Amino acid sequence: MTGYAALRAGFRWDIPARCNLAEEVCDRWNAGEPRLALIEVLGDGMLELSGYHELAHRSRKLANLFLSMGIGRGDRIGVLLPQRQETLLTHLAAWRIGAISVPLFTLFGEEALAYRLADCGAVALVTDGTGAAKISVIRDRLPALRHVLDIDGGADLHRLIEPASDRHVCVATGPDDPALIIYTSGTTGSPKGALHGHRVLRGHLPGVEMPQEFFPQPGDCFWTPADWAWIGGLLDVLLPSLFHGVPVVALRMPKFDPEYALRLMAERGVRNAFLPPTALRMLRQVPNPARFGAQLRSIGSGGESLGVEMLEWGRGAFGLTINEFYGQTECNLTIASCAGLFPVKPGAIGKPVPGHEVAILGPDGAVLPRGVEGTIAIRAPDPVMFLGYWNKPEATAAKFHGDWLLTGDQAVMDEEDYVTFVGRDDDVITSAGYRIGPGEIEDFLQSHPAVAAVAVIGLPDALRTERVCAVIVPKPGIEAGEALARDIQRSVATRLAGHLYPRQVEFVQALPQTTTGKIMRGELRRRFAASAS
To answer: Which of 162, 303, 337, 496 has its CA 20 to 30 A from that of 190?
Structure first.
């Protein structure tokens, strides 16, 4: 079929009764001829190539190691690693035994890791030397954590799996059996763990295939600078590519370097990329990017609206239209653009992806007429939708209005099904492609000995869309100034997470509040927006 309307009308989900992510992304290709899966770029520029046969062999050995340690179905296994083979192997091994993998961002500090590992009750963690050092500081706060496997030494993963058998049969799991917990930030309180079933990958496929211009095509090769700890790296790139037998470039890039990224995509034959808007803005600053020779077939971007100038730049720099897409950790890739299907409209994030029922709801939960602003909602059941928040049934219930999952994002849908994003209806901060909840940062800073009260807001930023700003009320007798601001920034960056630290710190005598004691964040944003520019 051709045409967007025909694709939507004829779409049917194919979700098998037996569904296991390890079988979906690894074993489906293990029985045939050797096939390339990962192209890992090492620190010295050398390459390490992994095929599906090797991934199957090593992940089965790791699965048997987990079983020998008493880890089994339903147990949570943390994965604190960058883009590398061992990251994928840990996920595969966990899914083989029916365990639940928990990806963790390598820039998380001790406090962020302690909360997430304790909240999910992780019994094991696979990490590297840097991660193991962080865990050693908080190990006494994690009574459930029985095993820490360090791929660099100590309880060395490679040494431990060597004698293990590679004979293993995946446990029988169904689409709704839990497979994965990805933590997401909200506006209040601590992060919540979005629990997904083994069906989540099948639910993602149309939302990957559409913005990546009918992915896969012969010769495709996928890369993203987005960390595999986030849903954008793991389920927008890595797992869909492996499902389709498309090789993925893996690279540990501590800081995005636009010229190196262009060189990498050219040298490694990257044809498909997920590039967050912040990365695109940095690439745009590189003179004549075509000189690097990258031969991209498709670029997808999500998290923020790109605008007409960025779309025109993409056409000039790469000879293609950058397709936007939209989603959340709880329900991802439900709206997307596809220049091969319909004209990309500047300002719009796309149209509903086939297989997903998307509507704009009013405050009463009723579907609004076209052209009226309201909340983006997705109707359940939907295979890409989360099973619920880990151990938070009240928060899960609050995410829904009847059969509709409420995203909390405001938008308008026009008569042609184009959805135009307007903004959040809460205080989540979008910075450099990360969705940042102020609650986690505020809770952390409340423990700082110099802080009496704090509010965290997002302020406009030309590169990052928003920058994190901490508005601090110092305790009596504390001198507010640059030294204290630097100490607060350093504390957040080292103990909580590098991407969460406030790039702007403001000191006030009191925080504006409503009569019921709620912080008036809008007033703070208006007050400090001028200094953010």
So the answer is: 303
Instruction: Decide the pairing of beta strands 404-413 and 400-401.
Output: antiparallel
Supply 487's token pair: 């100490």
Q: Is 520 helix (H, G, I), strand (E, B) or coil?
A: coil
Residue type, 136: S
Does an H or E element contain 63, and which?
helix 52-68
Calpha distance 198→266 (Å, rounded): 34
The CATH number of the domain holding residue 150 is 3.40.50.12780
Decide if 264 contacts 224 (C-beta within 8 A).
no
| pTM score of the predicted model | 0.86
Q: Domain range holding 41?
A: 20-173
Contacts of 483 (CB under 8 A, 6+ apart): none
Kindly report, residue by residue over 208-262, the tens digit of the pLDDT: 999 999 999 999 999 999 999 999 999 999 999 999 999 999 998 878 999 999 9
In a domain, 383, yes or no: no
**d(Cα 441, Cα 452) in Å, to the nearest integer?**
14
Strands annotated E in 277-347? 298-302, 323-326, 335-336
Distances 26 to 154, 222, 517, 531 between C-alpha atoms, Å: 29, 16, 53, 51
